[in-house]
Amino acid sequence: MQLINKYFPDLSNLQEMQFKLLLKIFPAWNDKINMVSRKDINNLELNHLLHSLTIAKFAKFKANDKVLDIGTGGGFPGLPLAILYPQVQFALCDSVTKKVKVVNSLIQELELVNASGYNSRVESINKKFDHAVTRAVAPLNKLISWTQHNVKGNLYSLKGGNLEPEIEESVLLTKQVFLKEHFDEDFFETKQLLISQY
Predict the structure, then answer these.
(1) Range 2-197: architecture per CATH
(2) Domain ranges of the chain
(3) Measuring CA to CA, which of 42, 102, 172, 180 is 20 to 30 A from 108?
């Protein structure tokens, strides 16, 4: 919790408890069903929880907003964001059935009333959302084409590497945030957040 507390010092007791519980129970689930790389599990707080939470430094989520997590995998970035924003509704979508089952179990264990897992291809979801979030799922243009029918605000994409060609090809106005300018850890050296306006 040291890293989360460093960047998010104003957590409630409940949020502290939920983050600690997620750090405790996620590795056991990951042993059963591989959701994040096994070599990564020792850096769960930095590589997955804090990485997911970087979105919160730039997002403008308001109470009662609905946020779509595209290709949530093991629940990232949706689960940490749902803990941080209890007044915002999160739909964690993935086409892999066993991953969504684990995500729904984690939601239950964390007692998150503002998050639900959806076993579906994202382009098949007909609900409307205020924003979308995603982490290393697909090129920007694909993400946009999958979601432009049902998201009206911003798309927050966590990515790494050289993203200039992807941004140039994209049809939306996209702001590039270099996370190393905002977070001290070496992990963020090549990490970026793209904020695209629908």
Answers:
(1) 3-Layer(aba) Sandwich (3.40)
(2) 2-197
(3) 42
Instruction: Identify the segments of the chain with pLDDT beneath 70.
Output: none
Q: pLDDT per residue over 85-124, tens digit each?
A: 999 999 999 999 999 999 999 999 999 999 999 999 998 9
